[in-house]
Specification:
Blueprint lengths: L2 H10 L6 H10 L5 E2 L1 H10 L6 H13 L4 E6 L2 E5 L5 E6 L4 E6 L23 E4 L4
Helix pairs in contact: 1-2, 2-3, 3-4
């Protein structure tokens, strides 16, 4: 995405396009990917931009709230931000720490529990944790 496309995307999601938000979004949307806040901080700064850790965390919270990225909580210490906003699931390799997309058509959910009256499912987050070790 070029700068004007990023600005437009941010505006469409009601996010004020500051310099630092544009730089972070530019790094995120280079390709579909799963990144931690630390990955984003290192990547943006490696491109010659200067953003602080606090700015990255605050921006990712905003981007998550506004629907620009999906937050994937692996455990208390591992959070990934997913630029693929389509409906899909994940496989997390506990040995390598890598997260991969799995299309919904590849996993069948046979039943959904009875929901309270008036409730509806707004999101489903399926993470299959895999390991090659016994």
């Amino acid at each position: 995405m070029d700068r004007s496309q990023i600005v437009k995307l941010l505006q469409q999601h009601d996010v004020t396009p500051t310099r630092q938000r544009i730089e972070i979004a530019g790094y995120l949307y280079q390709r579909p990917q799963h990144l931690s806040a630390e990955n984003i901080l290192e990547g943006v700064n490696a491109e010659g931009h200067r953003v602080s850790r606090a700015t990255v965390y605050n921006t990712m919270g905003l981007f998550t709230d506004k629907g620009l990225v999906r937050e994937i909580l692996i455990d208390r210490e591992r959070i990934f931000y997913d630029t693929n906003r389509s409906e899909h699931y994940h496989v997390y390799d506990v040995d390598s720490g890598e997260l991969h997309d799995v299309m919904q058509s590849e996993i069948e959910i046979a039943a959904v529990p009875k929901l309270p009256e008036g409730a509806r499912i707004v999101d489903t987050n399926v993470i299959l944790r895999v390991s090659s070790k016994s």
